[in-house]
Design brief:
InterPro entries: Me_CoM_Rdtase_D (IPR003901). The chain has helices spanning 31-42, 102-115, 134-140, and strands at residues 19-25, 47-53, 78-81, 84-87, 94-99, 120-125. The chain has 172 residues and is α+β, with helices and mostly antiparallel strands.
């Protein structure tokens, strides 16, 4: 199946029979809560991709009297996800997850109920791009990894994407 737009491109849609969910906590998550939530989500079977969204945590003051000074933000810490240290570059205020089944989505909702002591919104729908965009083509070439479609910032650098490969569990 090719792109439904009549632009003549050869782009292929991303995986078809998946469930995409959006989790929007009513509070910005601390690094500890973020680590706990992401760790429990990655422990689920059937996770395809996860995208964290939120306000950027800058390294240096960009303008004003303290221009160039280092920013010591209390939410700017390293967390461990799947055995990898990840520097928090954004505050976790929205989480997009693509899973392979409704059962996994229900399991993630249960994890959120157990993790958050405050209300949150949980939506199922289409949140990731299905087709390669111009930005994807410019950043990753004509044959991008489907798991990275729509996950690049047009103004950002490709090396700022943190890719965490899920470790396979032994069935013994």
């Amino acid at each position: 199946m090719t792109c439904p737009t009549e632009s003549g491109c050869n782009c292929e849609p991303a995986s078809g029979n998946t469930v995409q969910i959006e989790i929007v906590p009513q509070r910005i998550l601390s690094p500890d809560t973020s680590e706990k939530l992401l760790g429990r989500i990655y422990d689920c079977d059937g996770i395809i991709r996860v995208q964290v969204q939120g306000s950027r945590l800058p390294d240096k003051v960009g303008y004003g009297p303290g221009t160039g000074e280092k920013v010591n933000h209390p939410l700017k810490k390293s967390i461990e996800v799947e055995g990898q240290q990840v520097d928090m570059r954004v505050t976790l205020s929205r989480l997009l997850v693509e899973v392979d089944s409704d059962q996994t989505a229900d399991e993630i909702k249960k994890i959120c109920d157990e993790t958050f002591p405050f209300p949150f919104e949980f939506y199922k729908g289409v949140f990731f791009k299905k087709y390669s965009t111009v930005v994807d083509y410019a950043k990753m070439g004509p044959n991008p990894d489907e798991r990275l479609l729509g996950m690049t910032d047009p103004k950002g650098k490709l090396d700022q994407i943190v890719y965490i490969e899920k470790e396979e569990k032994d069935s013994e």
